[in-house]
Design a protein that fits this description.
heterodimer; A: mainly alpha; B: Rossmann fold; Alpha-Beta Plaits; 2 domains; 42% helix
Amino acid sequence: MTATEPRTNAPVRANVLRDTRNVFVRELRPVVRDPFTLIFSLVQPLVFLGLFAPLLIGESGAPVGETLQWFVPGVLVMIVLFGTGATGSNLQYEMMTGSHERTLVAPLARSSLLVGRALKEIAPIVVQAILIVLIAWPFGFRIDPLGLAVGLALLAVFGVGLGSLSYSLALATKDREWLFWGVQQTLIFPLLILSGMLLPLESAPGWMRAVATVNPVNWVVQGERALLGGDFASTAVLWGWVSALAVAAVGLWLGIRAMRRSS
Amino acid sequence: MTNPPIIETHGLTKRFTVKRQEVAAVTDLSISVQPGELVAFLGPNGAGKSTSLRMLTTLIPPTAGDARVVGHDIRTEAAEVRARIGYVGQLTSGSFAQRVGDELLSQGAFYGMRRADAVRRADELVESLGLTAIRSRSVQQLSGGQKRRLDIALGLMHAPPLLFLDEPSTGLDPQSRANLWEHILRLREEHGTTVFVTTHYLEEADRYAERVLVMDQGRVIADDTAPALKSTLAGDVLTFGFGSADEASAALAVLARVTGREATLDESGRATTTVPDGDALLPVVIRALDDAGLAVRTATGVPPTLDDVFLALTGRSLREADRTADAGTGDDAEHTEPAAEAATNLQEASR
């Protein structure tokens, strides 16, 4: 027996926290090894910032800073929607290539396999959001440090929920990539447009506004706008948090359930 | 052998529901494996080898029956089983996005190893499996043989007393395959690891396994050492050539008398018979033929292969069985038991 051999008769004690940390660390490693992947996935939000914001400015005639104050929070939520919403495809790829199976045979709590992955989503969200805010800053975007900090926390909670939902979808669709992307794309654009992220919904027809009221992304966007503007007293902040926490709760519940059934 | 078995199963059965029809992937698997054994599951694609392994490694629950692996129940003590086994699946164990060294350290952490121990163990494995030069490469960049060696390293990270390998050499070239087996055998010698492997390569089971479980259509149909299987179920083929057809015909009676087995003429008009222990009988038969005034011109004794065993057991050769299994599902040979896998998907999707 060498020192590295486990004491095979010691009882195995489930340790969800330790397992979650280990899964989280593993998921984070490729990001730390190759941080430039985070920069590349910034292209899409930058395109919206550079090509869409000027249209908004031209349309409204409002000053650049004021328009950015309205638009940037939506772009931050967009990062979560497109980046984190697609993260299930990474799991799906690992299910198809085999490494997911290996982690299922390892003595890890099933909940940790999901939660560790979902928590990792916070890292790219926070890094990318800060970069976008810093890029918008010289153009007149005001940064309220406390508002930004709480706003990032809101994005993180929403991201953990959305990431979990994306993982649930991957676990449910298994090796059918077309189904994963089909469902993902079908959901993501209505969620995007009905969130008032790109264009205000005030002039939308009544039925659209009605649907938007049950769209949690809409509430998260409004909450994010209030927070980044430093308006902590706004009820939008409360509803943003309620929506983000609800998405997180449902996502984690579905995700853990799907992970338990995974083989 | 007074040790408790490291694997013990009773009536282990797995049925899948495919299009509302029950398909039996594994039926009534009852086996006992002692610590330190090297056991091979041999059978064509779709025979139920992988499904058996997936039950024993707690990946899927059995429909009926029970099993204890490393002293723990696979249903009620899955965590205990998982902590004590290593598993190398059919596909790639390392995530394509991860680096080789990182995956090894993650694996160590998953099994509760302290970081210093994990680093030391990873060093050992990287060295002995020839992965040193590619340690900081991502899994995606590795060749097939390198990926497979990483799979083995990952399976061995926590030095499990029992290692399961599902088709470890499928898709490898002959040299990598031999190399892989060298590692498996050395590991076993050094650590006394029990190795349980599935394969549909006859030569592999024949050459490396001490004990072969022949599996077909979800059932174990034979269980013995390769030499015992061959001598009891197949036997050596003895063939004798003569100067004339008359002599060959006359030889049949002599062959039958000496060996006690039926003898026939083959397509080239030679007298042939199948016997156990052909090496010892060959000279005896030649002398008897000489005594009968029949001049033997050529004599060959061909030892049986496990394919002959499979043929004797099932009436078809392993290769034929593989072909029909593949044709039936339209899948490639890389993924054995595609039917069962598809069944799992369907079953779970329908929940």
